[in-house]
Amino acid sequence: MTDIATPTPVRIDSPAKRIAKQFVEDRIAVIGLILFVLIAIIAIAAPWIAPQNPYDLMQLSIMDGGLPPGEVSMATGQTFWLGTDPQGRDMLSAIMYGLRISLMVAVVSLTLAITIGTIVGVSAAYFGGRFDSIVMRIVDLQLSFPAILIALILLALLGRGVDKVILALVIVQWAYYARTVRSSAMVETRKDYIDAARCLALSNRRIMFRHLLPNCVPPLIVVATVQIAQAIALEATLSFLGVGVPITEPSLGLLIANGYDYLLSGRYWVSVFPGVALVVTIIAINVVGDRLRDVLNPRLQT
Amino acid sequence: MTALLDVRDLQTHFMTRDGTARAVDGVSFTLERGQILGLVGESGSGKSVTGFSILGLVDPPGRVAGGQVVFDGADLIAGGEKAMRALRGKRIAMIFQDPMMTLNPVLRIDTQMVETVRAHETVSRAEALRRCREALVQVGISSPDERLKSYPHQFSGGMRQRLAIAIALLHKPDLIIADEPTTALDVTIQAQILSEVQKLCAQSGTALIWITHDLAVVSGLADRLAVMYAGRIIEDGPTADIIANPRHPYTRGLIDSVPHGKRHGAMLTQIKGMTPSLLNLPKGCKFAPRCPRADAACQVEPALTPRRPRPPGALPPPPCRRKGHPVTPQPSLQIDGLSKRFTKDLDIAERTARRLGAKVAPVTVHAVDTIHLDIRRGEVLGLVGESGCGKSTLGRMVAGLTRPSQGRILYNGQDVATLKGTAARDAALKIQMVFQDPMSSLNPRLQVRDIVGEAPRVHGIVPRRDIPAYVERMLEQVGLDPSMGKRYPHQFSGGQRARVGIARALAVRPDILVCDESVAALDVSIQAQVLNLFVQLRQDFDLTYLFVSHDLGVVEHISDRIAVMYLGRLVELGEAEDLIARPNHPYTQALVSEIPTFETGKKTYHAIKGEIPSPLNPPPGCHFHPRCPHAHDRCRIEVPALRAVAPGRLSACHLNDQA
């Protein structure tokens, strides 16, 4: 044909590239991202990089109990950069292992909650009608109770355990994702490309997951980053209150709780350093999440 | 006497991430008192920015980088913001495309108008109100006292635009700049506004700059035209002269792109390619890459020279490529008594009130009201009507996207609603839709090859391994470079996206294409390209079209038969050329008379009166009677039946009984 349209002369970046470009314009967000990556690496690699395994009683010496930061072990000669707890556990190692538990619980519960919330939210938006009303009323009900209250009740009924904490976090959090995904899916469902897909006789499942869902992802990413920080904080709170993870697998929250008793006797490091690690983790994630929200929000884009 | 407005070498630049875009690049023109100038161009040509620059309303990252705007002897740009503010609204007024944006939705009209009066003059509130009333009457708004106490949302689109014009007129300005003020309005309302504006300018001696993409609309209104392309004025002269004898190939192309009045069904002469990006302009003549007559001389930027008479026949007449297309009389699709009602469910408060004995009835809108219509195999059936007439709902029901409340759709004699399983799927695939908005109708997360290739792959229309080649062939068919398959929709221009949407529909081998305002969102030159593509594809794929549009000019060009809808009912149906030449129904007559045409000399608009009634509360009897010049008592009571008034012509009007 004669009227082959000429390719557009101006290069337009792919969405991912544009988002990356805009993300790095904020220096604090970049620092947050670097910090978060570092924390994640430490958590994953803890068994290999930690100076000792804090839960192998063979490696502990009661003689090292309660040493302040920078002291040298009397038994092995290693330096305890962040001090030790009364059982002679290296706090640095304990924090590394604690991070591992905290992040694991948060990531697993996040993944499950996102999966459930997304399926529910997309289906509610796509099918609408009675299904939508019922599901969204359940979501409303769930969100009207404070998360900590629901989690406390659940754990009181279920007992302690990593799996039970994860279950409690999923139950508390899926509703956020369901509501977020539903609202963006409602907007997308009304667009012509969904009608076009229906016109092409594609199956409902294909339309929902291949056409609708990918277009609902940006707000989901934003909520997920905020929620993962909340999940970490919530898990820490539960563990601090003694209903969370068991004493054999201490997370950051449990470390803080354990050290709490020694705060008044001057051994601040047992509680404060895990607290600092928790705060840094949450702040890093929040900074990244905030920036992502700015970059992904279509209303702020020109 | 000096000119009222003298724009000299105006430069407005926008600083972007990727460089400086020269949106207005050396624009010069003059405007005499009382003159109407039509500033014409496609999107991105800089016409609106020119208007904004004159008023000093260019926002960062844009700025006026150079040139002079001399208004009544004073340079506005040198005068700065303060001088500008004293003039703005008082001696120069602006009318925008969307009046809802300029009216404050939480303030009553009288508050807003009185505020405008008193912004520039110290007058009493009573005096200001009197002026407001006067202005409303001037623009044809009846019962001004009542209207002044209303809020903007209580006005229809056309009324709001009248209001905006009334506000612009409050200070009897010397100059009004109107930016696409009728683009968002229905044709009958547009004609009303145009005739008001024409009258007002003649009465008050106000000069007007009418910015529009629609050469046909402005040609009936303006004394002079200035055609813009890529930030420059490329042709400037008296309207009649430019229309009759365009000297620039682009102007010629624009005129030829307008479908109305061209040979029916013929290929339109089109401007190839698309408007260049302002960041990446060609050297020399900006139009050269799209120009059919470009040569080596075009490497040098041509200057705007005074018009000289051109020897006639200097440009070759457009070649006609029309081939006859067979239309068989048997119907491919039968629409049998189809209705769609939308009922708003009662909410809890209303249900309770009803239980307590209050008379609360659910609100029902008859979007489509018992329509019988056959679409013949191989024909193009145009479906026209103004907004809210139900034409899109009818199209969506045919495409299977909206479930009818009543009636049947028969495809090859079979009721599509009764089909099950693969038979239902196959029938659904045979009727495809091409959507209006080329952006929202493509999934932004999928590459174009997936958008086009998905359905044929999923439904096994083409073997899986042949899909890439098939997709490439489809893209080629719609005039896209097959190598573009890897791109995402946002990397395409509007016209290209429309082509992708057509390729997607074609890929499942349909018989019938429902085109719902498929060219409405495109620039004229692109619209002509896409219309040509439709004509071409009809021959290549033996397609039948249901072409839904508000634009009778476009429908007339492409259709074999035309159906006219008004408030959910079919009012007239007939052969396209015959229907345009001899419309029977008064509504069709009104629509036909308002197709913008290039008539030399000023056109008088015979606007039909009144607003389009709300479909929530349609008038009884013939829906059209409140606006009809021939309405009599029977029209107010009895619904006219659609019946044959001539061979191949159906019309629903009581007047046919009297003759």
Can you tag this structure with a few keywords?
heterodimer, A: 302 residues, mainly alpha, two-stranded antiparallel sheet, disordered N terminus, B: 659 residues, alpha/beta, eight-stranded mixed sheet, six-stranded mixed sheet, 23 helices, 22 strands, 22% strand
Give an account of the 3D structure:
The complex is a heterodimer of chains A (302) and B (659). By secondary structure, chain A is mainly alpha-helical. Chain A has helices spanning 15-23, 27-49, 91-127, 129-144, 147-158, 162-189, 192-199, 204-212, 217-240, 252-260, 269-296; strands at residues 71-72, 79-80. In chain A, β1 and β2 form a beta hairpin. The two termini of chain A are 36 Å apart. Chain B has 23 helices and 22 strands. In chain B, the strands form 4 sheets. An 8-stranded mixed beta sheet of chain B has the order 16-17-18-13-19-20-22-21, with helices on both faces. In chain B, β21 (643-646) and β22 (649-651) form a beta hairpin. In chain B, α16 packs across α17. Mean pLDDT of chain B is 83; it is low at 309-323. Chain A binds chain B through residues 1-10, 12, 14-15, 191-193, 195-203, 206, 211, 214-215, and chain B through 18, 270, 272-274, 276-277, 279-280, 289, 396, 399-401, 425, 428-429, 432-433, 435-437, 440-446, 454-455, 458-459, 476, 479-481, 484, 488, 490-493, 495-496, 499, 501, 504-505, 508, 529, 532-533, 536.
The amount of beta strand of chain B, in percent, is 15-25%
SS field, number of helical segments of chain A = 11
Look at the helices and sheets of chain A and give the structural class: mainly alpha
The topology string of helices and strands of chain A comes to HHEEHHHHHHHHH
- Based on CA atoms alone, the radius of gyration of chain B comes out at 27 Å
Low-pLDDT runs of 5+ residues of chain A are 1-11
Instruction: Catalogue the unreliable spans of chain B.
Output: 309-323
Pair of chains with the largest interface and how many residues each contributes: A-B, 29 and 54 residues
Proportion of β residues of chain A?
Answer: under 5%
| Shape summary of chain B | globular
Q: State the distance separating the first and last CA atoms of chain A.
A: 36 Å
Largest sheet of chain A, in brief, is: 2 strands, antiparallel
Bin the helical content of chain A.
55-70%
Total strands of chain B:
22
The backbone outline of chain A, from C-alpha atoms, is elongated
Strand segment count of chain A: 2
